[in-house]
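#struct-help
A.M.: can someone run this one for me? Single chain, 286 residues.
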Amino acid sequence: MAASGERRASHTNTGTSSFVGVFHLARAPAERGLVRFSVVLYSIGAAPADARAIDLSVRTGGRMTTTDRGQPASGAADSADHEHDHDHQAIPSDPALRVKALESVLVAKGLVEPAALDALVDAYEHQIGPRNGARVVARAWVDAAYKHRLLSDATAAIAELGYSGMEGEHMVAVENTPRVHNLIVCTLCSCYPWPVLGLPPVWYKSAAYRSRSVIDPRGVLHEFGLDVPADVEVRVWDSTADLRYLVLPERPAGTERLSEQELAELVTRDSMIGVARVAPKPGTRT
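D.P.: on it. Structure tokens below:
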């Protein structure tokens, strides 16, 4: 196997111990679609003999195989193979491979639980982040003065509710109306307003969404299940590292009697990106 010879180090702190993983990425040209890499993990302050070596390989469309080679200085003693049924449509990027390697080692050593990691990501992607934005939207729906401030200076208005920080230093709010529908994208990478929307969804970062949202926004919206009438203008806003956007969706009809909190519960992450509308939940009091 022809190795790239690339070695990198990564440090993580689990709260009780600090670990350093030294990654060695190797590729096998004769086996297209296969990437192999190894990790040597050792605890800071521990003896080198306590280190462990882990080999991992990822095959496109296949599975990840992990081999624990034990202590690198002692050979292949105590080796064991573990197969994980993870489908991969494409070989991950080098940073993704390094993250996956470190995660796999920490899981193998019992230092983290995969379910806990999944729950943490889900919380920031679907609960904590979008809930912040939903409160901003609901406030704008019930408070005309706040809505005016939001559309005039979104950064300051959002900060009034306590939401600010990295990835949201400069915000612009764009309002959906019966005549205009707004769609947010980042054509360069995946710039996203974390303080109000949490983590960006995978599809938002995909090359297909980033390119087609500009070329064929109505087609993209249709694929999300949203058909915008021909007489409604679709405006596409390109987020950058310096400026992030938030869609202020239209308030659904028949929600005049709902409280601000009840309105916030209707607002979804997708509606604040512009790929969905806000609709009352079945059985909602109107």
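A.M.: thanks! Residues 118-273 form a domain with the Nitrile Hydratase; Chain A fold (CATH 3.90.330.10).
D.P.: also worth noting: The longest helix spans residues 114-142.
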